[in-house]
Amino acid sequence: MICNNLSINEKGHLCIGGQDTVELAEAYGTPLYLLDEDRIRERCRTYRRALQEAFGEEANALYASKAASFRGMYRIMKEEGMGVDVVSSGEIYTAVSAGFPMERAYFHSNNKTDADIRFAMENGVGYFVVDNREELDAIEAVAAERGQMQKILLRITPGIDPHTYEAVATGRVDSKFGSAIETGQAEEMVVYAMSLAHIDLMGLHCHVGSQVFDSDVFLRAAAILLDFAAKMREKYQFALRELDLGGGYGVRYLESDPELDIAENIREVGKAVHAQCEALGLPLPVIRMEPGRSIVADAGMTLYTVGTVKRIPGYKNYVSVDGGMTDNPRFALYGSSYTVLLANRANDAGEAFRCSVVGRCCESGDILQENVKLPADTKRGDLVAVLTTGAYNYSMSSNYNRIPRPPVVLLSGGESKLAVRRETFEDVCRNDI
Ligand SMILES: *Cc1c(COP(=O)(O)O)cnc(C)c1O
User: Fold this and answer.
1) pLDDT of 215 above 80
2) pLDDT, mean of residues 184-194
3) Which one, 36, 74, 142, 182, has least CB within 10 Å?
C-alpha cells in the first residue's frame, strides 16, 4: 500500500487508520471524504521536530491551509503548535472563527485587494508575504491609517525550475508570483520596503513549486536567498531575521512514486544553511517551511459508489461513480495520477478490466482517472476508493451541476466524527434570491 495507514481486513475491505471503509461508507453515505487525523498530527510533529532540531526552538512549520481548509483543520494546527498560511479573506475568516492564534498566520496571494489587506489587519494576521510593489504601497497605506506596524516577508523568485508540472511550478523568473532577483525587482522591493514607515521587513520568502521530489531544490533555494540577503546587507544594512523556504514536498500518489524522507531532507537543508550563514557572516535567521500537500494528502481518501458500468467493445470501458470533478477536479486540471481500487474487495487484483473511472457531471472531461485496473465483474453498488485525496480535493470542490459537496469525516484512535457535514440541496440554493 502507498501509505502505512492503509490495510486490508479479513473481510477483504480496505481500511484507513484501522477503520473499515465499507462500514464508514454505510454510516456516512457516499461520496465521502475521509481524513486520518492521527496521520495529519504525526506529519505536523515530524516537521516541527525536524525543523527545531535543524534550526533551533524558534523554527516552525506553517500549514499551507489552501490544501484543505475548514475549521476543524485550524483547530488541529492550533493544538499541534503549527503556524498557517492563508491566501484569502475566506481562509482568514475560517481560521479566526476556529480560534486560531492569528499572530502565527502568514497571508499570501499575488493579488490582495485593499479589502483583504484591511480585513487581515483587523483580524491580527501576523505576517503579510508581499508579492509586489503595488501591494507594499497598499499595506503601508492601511497600516498608516490604523497607526500600526505590519510585519512582512518579501516573496522572492529565485529562478529555479523544480522539475514538476508546469501548472504548479512557481519559482521561475516568469512566474506570476513574487519578484525576481534576476531582473533587479527583488532588490528594488527590499530597498522600498525598508523605506516605508509602517512596514517591518522581517525577511524573505520563496516557494519554488509543488509535488517536488528533487531533494536539492530547498538547498538551492536557500543558497540563492542567503546570497541575496548577504548582498542586501552589504549594500543597505538589510537584516535577514526570518527566512521562509516555502512548501512543496512531494507525496506518493502511485506505488511507483518515490518515497521522500522529509526529516532527513530538512537535516540536510539545516547543515547547508548553517554552513552558508557562517561563510557569509550572517546570523542564522528564524526558519519557516510551509508544507500543505505533505501534511494532509496521504491522510485522505475518497469513497464513491459505482453506478453505470459501460463497455464499448473494441474501444473503452467506463465506470461511473456518484461524485467526480466536483469533489476532485485534479485530473481535469492537471491530469493528476491517483491509485484507484475497489474498497469492498480490495484483494481482487483487477487485471482483466481496464477502464476510465468517471464522474456524474455533464462534461466529458469529468474524469477521476484513466487506465484504471479493476476486477472484471466490477458492478453497480461496488465501493470505489481513490487514495491520497487529502490535499486539494475538498478545498477545490465545486457545486457544478448543483451537486452538493460530500462531508469530511475525521478519523482518530478508532473513532470517526464529522468535520464538515454533507451539503443539502437547500445549501446549494442558499444564496439564490
Ligand atoms: C501552495 C503553497 C504552499 C504549499 O505547497 P504544497 O505543495 O501543498 O506543500 C506553500 N507556500 C505557498 C506560498 C503556496 O502557494
Assistant:
1) no
2) 97
3) 182
Q: Does residue 398 register a pLDDT over 90?
A: yes
What is the C-alpha separation between 272 and 192, in angstroms, rounded? 30
For residues 17-28, give the mean pLDDT: 98
Determine the distance from the C-alpha atom of residue 19 to the mean position of all C-alpha atoms in its chain, rounded to a whole number. 25
Lowest mean pLDDT among 160-174, 281-295, 374-388, 395-409: 160-174
H helices of 123-184, where? 133-146
Q: Which of the 8 DSSP states describes residue 65?
A: G
Cβ(246) – ligand 1 distance below 6 Å: yes
The pLDDT tens digits of the residues spanning 318-342 come to 999 999 999 999 999 999 999 999 9
Residues 6 or more apart from 74 whose CB is under 8 A from it? Answer: 65, 84, 94, 95, 98, 99, 100
Q: Decide which of 258, 275, 291 is a domain's last residue.
A: 291
Final residue before a domain boundary, out of 291, 309, 343: 291
**Catalytic residue positions, numbered:** 362
Cα distance between residue 412 and residue 5, in whole Å: 11
Q: What mean pLDDT is predicted for residues 386-415?
A: 98
Q: Which mutation among 207, 212, 394 tests ligand 1's pocket best, with the greatest number of atoms within 8 A of CB?
A: 207
Q: How far is CA 167 from CA 129, 211, 332, 336, 364, in A?
A: 21, 11, 12, 11, 21
Whether residue 301 is contained in a domain is answered as yes
Ligand 1 mean position, distance from CA 248 (Å) = 6
Among 77, 108, 396, which residue has the most ligand 1 atoms within 8 Å of its CB, making it the best to mutate? 108
CATH label of the domain that carries residue 121: 3.20.20.10
Q: Output the CA 425–ligand 1 centroid distance in Å.
A: 33
Question: Residue 213 pLDDT more than 70?
Answer: yes
Bigger pLDDT: 159 vs 116 = 116
- Residue 210: CB within 6 Å of ligand 1? yes
pLDDT band at 172 (very low <50, low <70, confident <90, very high): low
Q: What is the CATH number of the domain that holds 364?
A: 2.40.37.10
pTM for the full model?
A: 0.96
Q: Does 308 share its domain with 396?
A: yes
The domain containing residue 415 runs over which residues? Answer: 6-36+297-429
364: in domain = yes
Whole-angstrom Cα distance, residue 113 to residue 115?
5
Residue 247 near ligand 1, beta carbon < 6 Å? yes
